[in-house]
Design brief:
By secondary structure, this protein is of the alpha+beta class. The chain has 3 domains: about 20-140, Immunoglobulins (Immunoglobulin-like, Sandwich); about 170-470, Glycosidases (TIM Barrel, Alpha-Beta Barrel), CATH 3.20.20.80; about 480-580, Immunoglobulin-like (Sandwich). The protein is about 20% helix and about 30% strand. It has helices at about 185-195, 225-240, 285-290, 290-305, 330-350, 365-370, 385-400, 425-435, 450-455, 460-470; strands at about 20-25, 30-35, 45-50, 65-70, 75-95, 95-110, 115-125, 130-140, 150, 160, 165-170, 170-175, 200-205, 245-250, 315-320, 355, 375-380, 405-410, 480, 485, 490-500, 500-510, 530-535, 540-545, 550-560, 565-570, 575-580. Helix 1 (about 185-195) runs parallel beside helix 2, helix 4 (about 290-305) packs across helix 5 (about 330-350) and helix 7 (about 385-400) runs parallel beside helix 8 (about 425-435).
Length: about 575
């Protein structure tokens, strides 16, 4: 369903606290209605703005533009753009979500206070060159207790952290779109994620879920029903402590023939396609045409206005696997476009959310992630054997090339589908999840096939990792991939170490997927030993953990001499992890 845009003229608001109005046209005035008069740092404030005249297209900032300029206590001035909003009510009709329009549309601004103290808010509205008005509003922001926005950890630059220095290791999976139940799917998934300690998901804005501009009639006429759905899911994720990477577009937007699944060929109906009145005669024109870039920047402005104020927004992601359509678009133009649009997006976004994009796993192209506007690197892995070793190798290669955070943002044993027959004991899944924490990645391997994972209730793999990592130094800037002086031939060792702490994970070589994939009860590994080097001399406490149960199974001590620490490993099946700290 695509709603008809209603003129903004039917809602009148009264704000009970004093504010100053000034207008540049006779009788012009704005009414501001914030949803709170007691804002707190890092808690979103929604302001309804009334008093604007009707316009032909409320999505075109050349016709109408609202901006909130916030003067912060530090003296910084941040601009939060406004946006056109339509309320909906949802319900389930059988197994399908249905939305019903609620009232007329209105204008809104979402402001995220980034500092405590006295702020001055100045809202300016303009309709072309013919009409403008302003309203000013002072607001005092309390400190609050919510965590800050996600940033790159500045010392080692391997990890993410929150403003204030709290580490943010991403323990998550892909959950890119919903099914027929719409947002009700996320009402099921997100509580399960919170319970499991999952703190990250990825969402696509694509035709079947949250896309706002993808069909021939959508050019500067955004789908407000899908925007409302995204509001709902982001707010629920925020409430449950789940961070989101929001992907704007995927490669199918440029495809002209059905793919493996018989669809995803959206270029014939794309709103920027010249055959639909757009500025692009070819797919590559999307990346080179000034008119196309102007249109896209307007969509970016709307996107920032509507969703930048969500503090759980980890990052913006421009494309999913754009190299899948390199038969139609040129790589050099794609990279130049990312640099250009990255600069424009950063200029629009007052909250400075991180920015990235993605390729397929078969396309390790150095120049895109080297672009300064790309804050971290990603890799997609399907059909690759030995997922833990793959993660270790990719993490080392990408960090060496870019010195930016990296994680495997899609993982699956087969890109063609959920194939539990090839991984009946879910060891590949487990190894992809756990390996990120022990290889220098900024997060777990983000598994695909989220609907099947939910149906099979496989969340124990994440919850066990969350329990293991709780209270550790994962994410600290001085962690480095562990160096091994020696290790038993029957184990594949992984780890991250600092002079006074290390996190270790040992994998039975005979169960390094796909090895031993069909063996239900592999023989235990006994008598294994490893020697970690590059640590401080002295006494270390050692905890050995069962990685499926998420519990400590043995404790002890070991002594480091000449920078090396030898550990005797308890008997284990498949894998075992250790938390070690210098006393």
């Amino acid at each position: 369903m695509k709603p008809t845009v209603s003129p903004v003229r039917s809602l009148v608001y009264v704000f009970s606290c004093p504010f100053l109005l000034c207008a540049t046209a006779p009788g012009a005035e704005l009414q501001l209605t914030p949803d709170t008069t007691a804002p707190k740092r890092y808690e979103r404030v929604e302001i309804v703005v009334a008093g604007l005249p009707a316009v032909d297209n409320p999505f075109d900032p050349d016709q109408v533009r609202i901006d909130l300029d916030v003067t912060c206590p530090s003296g910084a001035v941040l601009r939060f753009p406004g946006f056109y909003y339509q309320a909906y009510e949802r319900r389930l009709e059988g197994s399908r979500e249905a939305l019903t329009l609620q009232g007329a549309g209105d204008w809104r601004i979402r402001w995220l206070p980034l500092e405590p103290g006295q702020h001055l808010l100045r809202v300016t509205a303009r309709c072309g060159d013919a009409w403008s008005a302003q309203a000013e509003l002072p607001m005092d922001v309390a400190p609050g207790d919510k965590p800050g926005l996600a940033r790159v950890e500045p010392q080692g630059r391997r990890y993410f952290q929150l403003e204030g220095g709290q580490p943010l290791f991403l323990n998550g999976l892909c959950a890119c779109w919903h099914g027929q139940r719409g947002t009700y799917d996320y009402d099921d998934w997100l509580p399960a994620y919170e319970t499991a300690g999952i703190n990250y998901i990825r969402i696509w804005m694509w035709p079947h879920a949250f896309g706002i501009e993808w069909d021939r009639g959508d050019r500067l006429a955004y789908r407000l029903d899908n925007a409302w759905r995204l509001d709902h899911v982001l707010a629920e994720a925020e409430r449950r402590g789940v961070y989101v990477m929001l992907c704007f577009d995927f490669h199918g937007m440029f495809q002209v023939k059905p793919d493996f699944w018989g669809g995803n060929d959206y270029w014939p109906t794309h709103p920027y396609n010249a055959s639909n009145g757009g500025p692009c005669a070819t797919q590559n024109d999307f990346f080179t045409s000034d008119a196309a870039k102007t249109l896209y920047e307007k969509r970016l402005r709307y996107t920032v206005a509507r969703w930048s104020a969500f503090r759980n927004l980890l990052a913006w992601e421009f494309f999913n696997e754009i190299d899948n359509v390199y038969e139609y678009v040129r790589h050099d133009d794609v990279v130049a476009w990312h640099a250009d649009m990255g600069r424009r997006l950063r200029a629009l976004d007052p909250c400075r959310h991180l920015i990235s994009s993605s390729f397929t796993g078969g396309s390790k192209r150095p120049d895109l992630f080297a672009v300064p506007e790309m804050d971290f690197a990603q890799y997609h892995s399907y059909n690759e054997q030995h997922p833990a070793r793959m993660t270790a190798q990719a993490a080392a290669e990408f960090y060496r090339a870019y010195r930016k955070p990296f994680f495997v943002s899609e993982y699956g044993t087969d890109w063609k589908g959920w194939k539990p027959d090839t991984d009946p004991h879910f060891r590949a899944l487990h190894q992809a999840i756990w390996s990120g924490a022990f290889t220098g990645a900024g997060g777990t391997g983000m598994t695909w096939w989220w609907e099947e994972i939910h149906r099979a209730n496989l969340y124990g793999h994440w919850s066990a990792l969350a329990k293991f990592l709780d209270g550790t130094g994962i994410g600290r800037g001085d962690l480095r991939p562990a160096q091994w002086a020696e290790h038993d031939e029957h184990v594949v060792p992984f780890g991250m170490a600092a002079p006074d702490e290390a996190l270790l994970w040992l994998l039975d070589r005979a169960c390094d997927w796909p090895e031993g994939a069909l063996v239900e009860q592999p023989a235990p590994v006994t008598g294994a030993a490893v020697k970690l080097q590059g640590v401080a001399d002295g006494t270390w406490s050692v905890e050995w953990w069962d990685t499926l149960a998420g519990v400590c199974v043995a404790r002890g001590e070991a002594t480091a001499e000449s920078g090396a620490l030898r550990l005797q490993v308890p008997a284990f099946q498949v894998d075992i992890a250790a938390r070690i700290k210098k006393r």
